[in-house]
Amino acid sequence: MRVTFRCDPALIDILPRPKLAREAIPDWLKSMPAKAFSDLHGRDVRTVKQCPPFVDAMAHGFMISLPCDVRVEGGVFEWDWPAPPITVDQHPASPLSFHPPAQVLGTPLHRPDAVLIKFNSFWTIELETGWSLFATHPVNRPDLPFRLLSGLVDADHFHDGGINFPATWLDPEFQGVLPKGMPVAQCFAVPRARPELVFETLEGENAIAYSATVAEILAAPNVYRKRFRQRK
Length: 232
Fold this sequence. Notes:
Blueprint: E1 4-6, E2 19-20, H1 27-31, E3 35-38, E4 43-46, H2 52-58, E5 62-65, E6 70-73, E7 76-78, E8 96-99, E9 116-119, E10 124-126, E11 131-136, E12 146-148, E13 151-153, E14 165-169, E15 176-178, E16 183-191, H3 204-219, H4 223-228
Antiparallel strand pairs: 1-10, 2-5, 3-4, 5-16, 6-7, 6-15, 8-9, 9-14, 11-13, 11-16, 12-14
């Protein structure tokens, strides 16, 4: 899968480039222990650091990052981004803009005091024919003070304008800085063809394979990682 990114010529040397999600694994995952004591079991158990599906989901696709520091204090968002003048007409010049809360009226996201931000796009994204772009909140990142709204864009056709990333602000008490390079959206290329759903019962060889696989997983650790996980 080839993904092509384009930005305004004035920003090419200062704009953080999208990066593979595996290059944006948070420090807390890197530093967390592989095992931790469980009061329920009375012994050490493996943490999610040893769960390949958990880690692989966080490492899949690519990340869009914040282009500059954004200070948040008292519900006010401020930034000082000394970017040169934009050369392309209709191009955004600020890292954030905002949505009125009425746009999510009737959804669980709506609150009278809701703050809906939009991470503006400074890169266009072009995918190969037949593929769409699925953008979502960085996977397994509840530590971020916002929650991105997931979206699907047919980026094989829509690639001449930027894809913006709306989010609901979760922490009204947050005071601090959202740093330049902070991941704001995790993106995957997904095929647009509808899947064919097939339903069967576990019988014969499939039933035998099921029982053998589960027995092996219960008997020893790391079976999935050693036998089934594919190199990515």
